[in-house]
Amino acid sequence: MRHEDRPTESVWDYPRPPAVVPDGRLVEVFFAGRLLASTRRALRVLETSHPPVFYLPRPDVATALLRPADGGTLCEWKGRARYWNALADGRLSPRAAWSYPEPLPGYRALRDHLAFHPDRVERCTVDGETVRPQQGGFYGGWITDEITGPFKGAPGTSQW
Question: Is 48 strand, coil or helix?
Fold first, then answer.
């Protein structure tokens, strides 16, 4: 479903370091037949060569379906990421979500927000449009019809 009222965005026009931009569209995440998150208060992180990552406020996430996961990663811009497993009705999705408990300066808005890998949950939507996951399984970008690439993450793009 193409949302004609939204202008096309090229990920090559996104900044580096990344920008954090509020987004009032309805963003939903589904897992194991359940609504895991629903908000109109998402933040999008926009970074050169990457599809946007949507961060959802913790109060709009069914955190009872999340369990802390082992390990973490370090982003040069945002800081240390903590990972979360999704667990519902006997289904487990390892590292389905991540957060920045203590984001670095410039990214403090991400505190108390969670991001979801669209390929590790049942479905993610933006205003009803089903999101396509960024390839590669690491970055977790959300591709919608208005976003154009090419995108980092696919085979052969690691040196971009």
Answer: coil
Tokens of residue 152, six digits: 């980092």
Token pair, residue 62, equals 């069914």
| Cα-only R_g, the chain | 15
**What tens digit of pLDDT does each residue of 34-69 get?**
999 999 999 999 999 999 999 999 999 999 999 999
- Beta-bridged to residue 57, according to DSSP, are 113
CATH of 12-148, one of 2.70.50.60, 3.10.20.310, 1.10.10.60, 2.170.150.40: 2.170.150.40
Cα–Cα distance, 14 to 40 (Å, whole number): 22
From the list 156, 123, 159, 142, the residue with the least C-alpha distance to 50 is 142
Residue in 115, 137, 4, 11 with CA at minimum distance from that of residue 54: 115
pTM, entire model: 0.93
